[in-house]
């Protein structure tokens, strides 16, 4: 069972998401709130696997809540931010803060439940074109780290394919490698970059200039 915490200040959105999630046999909403400030205690109490986090809330917003969870909660749950607009500045900042991906509030129900299962497995919810667009809009932030990380040429090649949104299986096919070998390379990339997941590694790749939005 994958336990989910809903965080959105709109009652109607929470009701809709709860109905979608609770209709699935392997998913369950364990708690919900309309304020980012109540997220840490709810996580401590219910230990959700995934948090659906609205980025725009009047009190404590989703970015602040995400930062707190990632930095201060032991073994933090995966966070998917939900937003009305994909080019929202809040989305990019939430991804930089540690969210594993984002969904639009108009996303079809089947895609929402698929996304929850995906991040619960430890994968990232990457939309290459959206990430590229957000990175282009925000420009390089001069983030260092990739050159000093000591990535091998193969690991750099794997990271470039990660920025294109390729899965481990697709990377394996592209490079004519075994899937387990690719998993090892991805793990090495994340470890050397001190990245929480693929999303963080991809953002670091853009912000350091390793790859460009063009």
TrEMBL record:
The modification 4-aspartylphosphate is found at residue 54. Keywords: DNA-binding, Phosphoprotein, Transcription, Transcription regulation. It comes from the Bacteria. GO terms for molecular function: DNA binding. GO terms for biological process: phosphorelay signal transduction system; regulation of DNA-templated transcription. PANTHER family: TRANSCRIPTIONAL REGULATORY PROTEIN NARL-RELATED, TWO-COMPONENT RESPONSE REGULATOR. This is LuxR family two component transcriptional regulator. It comes from Herbihabitans rhizosphaerae. The lineage of its organism: Bacteria, Bacillati, Actinomycetota, Actinomycetes, Pseudonocardiales.
